[in-house]
Design goal:
It is a single chain. With 262 residues, this protein is an alpha+beta fold. It contains seven helices and 14 strands. The chain folds into two domains: 3-137, Fructose-1,6-Bisphosphatase, subunit A, domain 1 (Fructose-1,6-Bisphosphatase, Chain A, domain 1, 2-Layer Sandwich), CATH 3.30.540; 146-259, D-Maltodextrin-Binding Protein, domain 2. It is 34% helix and 26% strand. The strands form three sheets. Strands 3-4-5-6-7-8-9 form a seven-stranded mixed sheet. A five-stranded mixed sheet has the order 11-10-12-14-13, sandwiched between helices.
Length: 262
């Protein structure tokens, strides 16, 4: 197994064990904004992940959601860590959350893992080596039309009134088999990678939300771009991931939604 992937896998399982143990306990919640929450479990999970990454890769940069990362000037490699993607779900006892750890080399994802400790689904990918769910190869769906597709999205926890995504949600709901909003971008991308969803779009995602999931989609045979079909960079303003077969149709609907909200 790829060295980076092996280390990330071990760390994700360790962090996931913390989350699983604390999932059934009363949560200590604080707020980073009006509705953007953080739990002690976020912080404990992140502390473990960052400490382990520093032990194994002291020369790498680390960008972590709760600020526990460490910059490394001029570092070729950077880890993007979400210690608990789906914090709101976790806090409400909804079992849709995950540990997401992705490694980028010169800005491009090269290794990534996403682990849901409740379902024990472990997604992993390394560049050029395919994508896996619990060590079994996965592939994007073969659905060819948006009308028969199940797609997913998410909504921001801050500046919600300024988000135009409700227009996109409306347009895609009218034209697809259905739109889901599960509250975990990392798991949504994994669902595209393994064919559960045929596409996923969202705005204002951070690099730690997408570093692992983007690689999983690509290694599973899918496509990831920005909402207009251009190159997607980690932390970019908009993301569109699909099985590739409905990508242009998705992009066309996105144009309709954009015109509805000039």
């Amino acid at each position: 197994m790829n060295e980076f992937l092996k280390v990330a896998s071990d760390i994700a399982r360790e962090a996931g064990a913390i989350l699983r143990k604390e999932f059934d306990r009363p949560k200590t919640i604080s707020y980073k904004g009006e509705v953007d929450i953080v739990t002690e479990s976020d912080r404990r999970s992140e502390a473990v992940i960052v400490a382990r990454l520093r032990e194994h890769f002291p020369g790498h940069a680390i960008v972590a959601e709760e600020g526990g990362g460490a910059a490394a000037a001029g570092a070729k490699y950077c880890w993007h860590v979400d210690p608990l993607d789906g914090t709101t779900n976790f806090a409400h006892g909804y079992p849709c959350f995950a540990v997401s750890i992705g490694l980028a080399e010169d800005g491009e994802p090269v290794a990534g893992v996403v682990f849901n400790p409740v379902t024990e689904e472990f997604f992993s990918a390394a560049r050029g080596e395919g994508a896996y769910l619990n060590e079994r190869p996965i592939h994007v769906s073969s659905i060819e039309k948006l009308a028969t597709s199940l797609v997913a999205t998410g909504f921001p926890t801050h500046h919600r009134k300024r988000s135009a995504n409700i227009n996109y949600y409306w347009e895609f709901t009218l034209r697809s088999h259905g739109v889901r909003r599960d509250g975990s971008a990392a798991l949504d991308l994994c669902s595209v990678a393994c064919g559960r969803f045929d596409a996923f779009w969202e705005f204002r995602l951070n690099s730690w939300d997408t570093a692992a999931g983007v690689l999983l989609v690509r290694e599973a045979g899918g496509i990831v771009t920005d909402i207009k079909g251009g190159p997607y960079s980690l932390g970019g303003p908009a993301l569109l991931a699909s099985n590739g077969l409905i990508h242009e149709e998705m992009r066309g609907v996105a144009e309709i939604a954009e015109r509805a909200n000039p």
